[in-house]
């Protein structure tokens, strides 16, 4: 399996980590009866759960860009050193980003987010029809 697909699989696993972190934080802050049901009048308590939710949302938004690009690069036989580096940069950035967001580390979080976006851009440039790849 190409390394880019391995990085994609690891990124999917990271989405599960995000969801699990949200669940753990929610269970630490709420009674089970508060978490059951539609949560129509759910009031967010504390910053930890709000951060976890925002980090998960951001991860999902990034995956919407990353996953198709990796699959397009694979399907069009445009995997190369640049897509490998881009996929690795994306995953590394996202691995650093999550705990930085959860624990409120501002500058490093932004740098990690930027690394992930640069990784996505590197792959995108390889799959453009006029990229010459």
Outline the structure in words.
With 133 residues, the chain is an all-alpha fold. It is 79% helix and 0% strand. The chain has helices spanning 3-29, 32-35, 46-75, 81-102, 106-127. α3 (46-75) runs antiparallel to α4 and α3 packs parallel to α5 (106-127). The longest helix has 30 residues, at 46-75. The two termini are 20 Å apart. The relative contact order is 0.16.
Low-pLDDT runs? none
Number of strands: 0
Report the structural category. Answer: mainly alpha
Helical coverage, percent range: over 70%
N- to C-terminal distance? 20 Å
Tell me the radius of gyration: 17 Å
Quaternary organisation: single chain
How would you sum up the major sheet?
Answer: none
Mean pLDDT: 92
The topology string of helices and strands comes to: HHHHH
**Count of runs of 4 or more consecutive helical residues:** 5
Mass-distribution shape: elongated
The fraction of residues in strands falls at: under 5%
Write the layout of secondary structure elements.
Elements: H1 3-29, H2 32-35, H3 46-75, H4 81-102, H5 106-127
Considering the chains and any ligands shown, give keywords for the structure:
5 helices, mainly alpha, 133 residues, elongated
């Amino acid at each position: 399996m190409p390394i880019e697909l391995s990085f994609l699989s690891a990124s999917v696993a990271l989405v599960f980590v995000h969801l699990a972190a949200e669940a753990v934080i929610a269970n630490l802050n709420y009674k089970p009866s508060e978490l059951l049901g539609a949560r129509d009048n759910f009031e967010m308590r504390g910053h930890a759960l709000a951060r976890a939710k925002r980090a998960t949302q951001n991860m999902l938004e990034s995956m919407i860009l990353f996953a198709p690009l990796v699959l397009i690069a694979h399907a069009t036989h445009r995997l190369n050193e640049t897509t490998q580096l881009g996929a690795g940069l994306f995953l590394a950035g996202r691995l650093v980003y999550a705990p930085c967001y959860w624990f409120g580390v501002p500058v490093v979080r932004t740098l990690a987010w930027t690394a992930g976006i640069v990784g996505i851009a590197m792959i995108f440039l390889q799959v453009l029809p006029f990229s010459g790849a």
